[in-house]
Every structure is written in structure tokens, then in C-alpha cells.
Amino acid sequence: MITTTGQPVRQGPGFAETVALVAALMGLTALAIDTMLPALPAIGASYALAEANELQLVVYAYMIGFGVAQVVYGPLSDVYGRRPLVIAGLIILIAGAIVSALASDFDHLLVARVLQGVGAAAARVIAVSIVRDRYAGREMARVMSFTMMVFMIVPVLAPTFGGLLLALAGWRSIFATMAALSIVVGLWFYVRMPETLHPEFRRALSVRSILDAARICVTNREAVGYSLAIGLLFAMLMGFIGSAEQILGSDGYHLGVLFPLAFASVAITGGIAAFVNSRLVRTWGMHRLSHGSHLVHVGLTAAFFVAAHLFGGLPPLWLFIALMIAMQFFFSIAISNYNALALDPLGEVAGTASSLIGAFTTIVGTIGGALIGQAFDGTVAPLSAGFFALSAVTLLIVYWTERGRLFQPHHQGIVPAGAE
Length: 420
Prior knowledge:
mainly alpha; disordered C terminus; single chain; 76% helix; Growth Hormone, Chain: A; 2 domains
């Protein structure tokens, strides 16, 4: 294709390569969390940390940077385009990984992890915008479905990958490998992906437009309620991820090198739930599916709480894993639909709203998860209490959001069967 100026237009990668590249960009964000989980005890030993719970900050520092930066990347990519922001973010991510590998003390490592999170946010946020720029309707849905299926594999395999690097070359090699992989993905993106934002859709940088979008978000009952729900549910996930190595690997069940396998058995459930949700949501609708799943989740967290206390804080491993898998399944269905319900009434400011809600829910989830993780006492009792309290409170928030009408779509006009 030739432009009116006689210059060739870069068409970019085809469908399969787009899926692979977008999944690689998004996968870097998960890789930066899960790959280093098996290395936490080695990091603690290297810096002679007296308190094992401090190691959780390696996870939470990254997530704080990741959450805050989302506010910036979305609006800026609408002004300057997708390519420069993705490339800038990857450079920051690479720098953070290199500094992490060379960190001389624990405080420097935490600062570097924040830097990694700031860089990774660009890949995560703008990757979705690139898909939206290049595809529409069913084709966009196909790309995102395939992308998420690939993306879900990362948390399953990452701890094993990190464990291998740890055994072969020490914990610093994990961060060095993150930098190397980010460089590879960055070069791939630079060479193959053209600018996807159409010139006509570029916006002027305006603080007022961002504030107007924020005002629309905070004055919409559904957006506020479901954003709070997402944040509090995400806190449960972050509470588990932050303390997973201690619970399963070193202090609770003492699985040691088998930790990645146990972690993977829980992590893979999210991918299965995403597939099930994609099959059921058109028939059942988002409200019925998410509210029903949440009710089941509350019951499961109550059972987890009871089991933790009946067995002195450490239920049998098989029971703990079974409960975690079941909770993760219904959690994943609920939170994926809550994301859609939070954005559903914000179509006029969807791009900026997505960034603002993403930042808010990540920060709330990280802070809540850190509170749960820091309460770890060698048992799963604090985790079970946090899960039950947060799931129950979140259901009350959803009840308030829906004005007491759970399971019922409430759009005006006639709603087709199964549509929302």
C-alpha cells in the first residue's frame, strides 16, 4: 500500500504474529513477578534479612510501580502514539532488571523493582490498545482470546523457569534473564510493529480531559462499586502470591524444590476459568455468572477459614491445594466479569478510564495483599482470614452497587436473552 505522499505504509505482523507479540509483551509483566518467587529465600540469605516477611516486598514494590504508572501510559499513548511509549517502557523495564541484578543491598533492590514495575506497565496497558487499534469486533475478540490463553501459561511455567536459573547461576541471573528477554521482545516489537494509532485519533495532551474522565468514573455507581470489588478481590491474589513461597516452599508445607509444581497447580486454574467463562458468559450473562461465582467463592473462603483453624493453621496439603484451586476458579470468573462491568458504563472515556481503574485496583490490591502477606506467621490462618473477610465485604459492595438486585442485568430497554 502507498500513501498519498508516495511513501510505503508498514502493514505490520499478521494475525498469528500479532497474537504472539502482544502475548510476549503482556507476559513480561507476569514473568517479572512469578519467575523470582523460588529465589526469595536466596535473596534473603544474600542480604542477611532477619525477617522473612520482608522478602514479600520484592513482589509488592514491583506492583506499586506497575499500578501507579498505568495512570500515565494510557493518556500519553493517545497523544504520542503506541510505539514510543512501549519502547520507552521496555527500556525502563530493562534498566530496572539490570539494576536489580546488580543491587548491592535490599533497599536498592526494592527501588529497582519499583522501576521494573513502572516499565512493565507500558507493555501491559498499551498492548491492549494496539489490539484495539488493529482489529475490531470478532477479530479483536479472537486476538485477545488467543493472547490471554498464551498469557495464562506464564504464571504456570515461570516459577519452574526461575528455579532452574536459581540452581544454575544464582538469583541474580533471574533478573539478568528478565533483562535479556525484554531486549529480545523490544527488538521484535521495534522491527515488526508499526505505529498503530491512526493520526486522526491522536488527542491533545490535556489535564482537564483526564480530570473529566476521572470525574465520570468516580460519579458512576457501577464503575465505583465494581472497581472497589476488583481491588479487594485482587488483594486476595496478591496476598497469596506474596506469601506463596513461604506457605508452600520454605516455612509452611516445606515443599522446597516442589514449590513451582504446587504453585502451578493453582495458577493454571485461572486459565481454565477464563476459557469456561468465555463459553458461558454469552448464555448466562455477566451478572448471573459473576454474582453466582462470587457467592460460591464466599462459601469456599468460609470453608478455608474453618479448615485452617480446625487443623491448627495448616490443613493437609491436599486439602489446602484443593481449596485454593476451587477458590481460584470462581475468583477468576467473578473478577474477569467485574472488569467488564466496571468499564461498561464508561464508553465515552474508555481509554483513560481503563488506565485509571487499572491503577486504582492494582494499588488497592497491592496494599491489601501486603497486609495479608505481612501477617504470615508460618500458617495459612492469616491468609484464610483475609480471604474470607475480603470476599464477604466485596460481595456486600457488589450488593450495594446493584441496589440489592443481584443476578439481574439492569440496562434500560429490552435486553436480548443472554446479552448484557
